[in-house]
Design a protein that fits this description.
The complex is a heterodimer of chains A (491) and B (471). Helix content of chain A is 39%, strand content 13%. Chain A is an alpha/beta fold and 491 residues long. With 471 residues, chain B is of the alpha+beta class. Chain B is elongated, with a radius of gyration of 31 Å. In chain B, 40% of the residues are buried. Classes of the chains: A alpha/beta (491), B alpha+beta (471). Chains A and B meet through helix 10 of A and loops of B. The complex binds zinc ion. Zinc ion (ZN) is lined by residues 20, 23, 25, 37-38, 40-41, 150 of chain B.
Chain lengths: 491, 471
Amino acid sequence: MANVPVHEWTLLEAARKVREKEISSRELTGAILTRIEALDPKVHAYITVLPEAAAAQAAACDEEQAKGALRGPFHGVPIGLKDIFCTRGVRTTCGSRILRDFIPPYDASVTEKVLGAGAVLLGKHNMDEFAMGSSTETSFFGATRNPWDVSRIPGGSSGGTAAAVAAAMCFAGVGTDTGGSIRQPASLCGVVGVKPTYGRVSRYGMVAFASSLDQGGPIARTVADTAALLGVIAGHDRRDSTSLDLPVPDYLAAVDRPVKGLRVGLPKEYYEGDGLSPEVRAAVQKALKALTDQGAVVVEVSLPHTSFALSAYYLIAPAEASSNLARYDGVRYGHRAEGASGLIEMMSRTRAEGFGDEVKRRVMIGTYALSAGYYDAFYGKAQKVRTLIRDDFTKAFEAADVLLTPTAPTPAFRLGEKTGDPLTMYLSDIYTIPCNLAGIPGISVPCGFSAEGLPIGAQLLSKPFREETLFTAAGAIERALPLRRVAPLEG
Amino acid sequence: MAFETVIGLEVHAQLSTRSKIFCACSTAFGAAPNENTCPVCTGMPGVLPVLNRKAVECTIRTALATSCTVQRRSVFARKNYFYPDLPKAYQISQYELPIALGGHIDIEVDGGTKRIGITRIHMEEDAGKLVHEGEFAGAQASLADLNRCSVPLMEIVSEPDMRTPEEGGAYLRRLHDVLVYLGVCDGNMEEGSFRCDANVSVRPVGQEAFGTRAELKNMNSFRNVEKALEYEIRRQVELIEDGGKVVQETRLWDANAGVTVSMRRKEEAHDYRYFPDPDLLPLIVDDSWVEELRKTIPELPAEKIARLGRQYGIPRYDAGILASTPALADFFEASAAIYGGNPKTTANECVHWKDAVLAGTLSPETIAHAVEDRERGTISATASKKLVELVLSTGKPFRMLRDEQGLTQVSDTSALDILVDKILAASPKEVEGYRGGKVGLLSFFVGQVMKESRGKANPKVVQEVLKKKLG
Ligand SMILES: [Zn+2]
């Protein structure tokens, strides 16, 4: 392993090597910045790259270290953030024209924690506009490409983060997951992505899409890296009333625990229907075998309301989004339409110009779903479905410790292939959405490749606050299936 | 046809908290535009509201003081609409599940008591305000001041139980006094801390169904509320008598013109698309919290007026004035505790010096000493007033000033004997005249003695001594 290039190190390796002075933060950061310069024109994983700021931050880390001070567990290691996390003094666009020039005067809680751990901020990752999308094609700044095949999408909405991690243009990143936006792109880019329990990671300073579903989480190339990063960003935050006041366990310690006796549930509804690609099915079978080979036992479970999840999600998420996005009206910050003659015209034109099609589509659906006379039929009913789905999981977890499912029904599709047909696009999240509705944690871990060399991921789900179980099971799969994690991409 | 009026009132009261309802910004009045703002109250991307515990406590205490039932679980909802003074484009308010339901307030009308029901009390945040440069219509620009954004409000909605503008006024005043008593609202109507909207309808006497109602806004004093109600009732009655129909609408009170004017019809009403705010958890209020807060409820206006009358034997009117301000009533009781005497005199003094009392520049001792010295005849009424003024200007104790100024009355008869003898000896003609029947000369002698004593003699005692000696 002596010849592993710097950028292919894992997050934990890089952190250790900086700590042990095998490499300076300046060299490490410089290597990744060089790589971004060479590769990002092809992948477009970043909306904003901060070469000077990152170099300066790395230099400061080196200086402090020379005096014997380490900022935290990721001292001097460069990482990136999805452009949905507010960064003080650095533009935060959320992939939208309407926030193209928005420079927040505050840091998100996640930003604070990552910087507090000593990480060097390389830049802000591309994403679907306001996190609405499954392919990172709705970004106002242009689509991100899958580093394993640049004619394909990386998944979304955290596609920029997953692609940057897979292309080794950062050691890790933090994304957000509203209906699968961490797990699905992680699966499609062959990396690990974790959607923690709702309330585990503060939403403060994370631009809101659907508040009751949004959750920030780590994306990295190994299970251990995501466990370490989650350990840093998790925890109670008084600024987020929905954040939970519970101690943060040692996630890293969970990764190497044995899975002997672990009850793995296979929800039958997730394997029915013809949307599931045979290649994905076969790869997930390998993940299951990896677990049973190490002593896990298989149990059959049922999540009977799964088929309603997509409909409920596409009422709840747009309804909350229509309200969350109403503040982008051109009055205080961001884009404002020129030449409007009155208030209503200014607001209408600002929003017409500032938002892309997918955002407009969802804002209109959501506005309709909440309007007088339709509330009970749509939003109210969707909330009832949500309760049923949550109850399904509670019951399933009486029999199983973790559930194993595919993350996405197919490997990465081609750019433009589904943009004309939003309903087909929405099906990309069919396996990930129920987890958000129930507020439980989930992880996507690589489990194979398609015949065309495209990554495939397996999803594990657990009870609320049992992320440790996820790390244990995902760690077992990772050990049994040592797969290439850095895309073979030339500059 | 005889008509009956139906009035329901909605009061918005600003809660007396130092910080806003969902962020740590100051609620102080009169700051420079946008000085009291932060990313949270200006609705910046990604920020989240955090509920102010003190605001919840103020509301619960109000609920207890108005006999409402505090709900164990209440929910904040978003009221969605676009306006430049509303930075999130929604107002966080309670909607379906408010914090308190079903209470009442008793008012006094026509010598009796009437119970006015309270439907609900809920919490919400205020919006900012727009300042239009130049005249409104031709304004070149509109500026937004977001200082008031997220200032905590409580909305108290009454049942449509009032039948006259006077009842409306009495309810508002009583509610106002209760909030001020509790210390949950400063009650300042000019600064908008206590605002009222009214729902008014009329119906033929005997009809059970309500008539079509109009909502009145923009009334900023008790008197304005009563005047607006009077006008609106007359307008509706005349409209119906002329064969017209009242339409459901929102009307603004124009205090200068003394009329209400249409602002918005029902068909133009907003669809607010209410839904529970996913950024805030349901508010859970447990019984022990309520019981803890119940202990902090002070004696309320009606109870206090009754008790002052009972305990001190002062007239109801006086008790009402004292009780209008808890601090004044407290001051009165403190003074009366130092010197009992006649509480009516103490009450009069407290009311007379009300401004100084409320400004905190007078102590109960000063009033007690002033009353005591007067009642004992040690000083005159004039001297008493003069001394209190001196206390205010110098800050020295009342009795120290009294002695320094030599304003103690001489009531000691042996001392006055000498003075009277001196005056009588100096005025033989007048003495003769008096004894000859000119009894009016008594005031001459009194005046002379007073002059001789440089005002210190007690005129009553002087008269008695004179009468005896001249008798
Ligand atoms: Zn604020």
